[in-house]
Known about the structure:
By secondary structure, the chain is an alpha+beta fold. It contains seven helices and five strands.
Amino acid sequence: MEEGKEIASDKGTPQGGIISPVLANIYLHYSLDIWFTRVFQQGCHGQSRIIRYADDFVVCFEREADAIRFRKELDLRLSKFGLEISPEKTKTIEFGPYAQSKADSRGGKASTFDFLGFTHYCSRSRNGRKFRMKRITSRKKFTAKIRMFRDWLKANRTLPTDELMGKVGSKLQGHFAYYGVTDNSKGLNRFSYEVHRLLFKWLNRRGKRGCMNWEKFNLLLKKFPLPQPRITVNLFA
């Protein structure tokens, strides 16, 4: 499906298909992972590391020269296997302990990057002494998740109250389980707030306009309590 048009093809895998990430892991294991560790990494002048999930990956380099060389050789390597990277989703950035100070000297901000639904950014530890990479739910994913919840709620708002609240609770629990990582409390709280706001809006439309006020809504939440946002994964344990 490209720009709303369905195009038949005997190449590639369907986007969103169950088999796609499995095939990506098999294919990229040989075309990317092994090549990086056994060939490219051997010529690096500093430390390097690749982190990949299905067809999405981040590569880290201690030396800028290695990063520039990798970006050039990556295209050549993937082309041998009939693959190419997406230019609009690919960028080379300065990131790490000294990125913010260098950005400050230029009067700007350190670059960030999105990976697996999180925006990763440069920060410091609580006492400010050490560099710390932090994460927050990416704006793109946050907007998409809220839109999906709104559409679901609009279509299911006539469900019996106990069933509706149970399903809303399950959706919140699933979101918190994935996005509830260290430093993402703000992202969780924002999502919880938007879900409560949408829930109040659509419950208010089930009957006579204005039948649901905030006092009644809070009583409903006491009867059918929803999961509270909390960090479920400590990345520094």
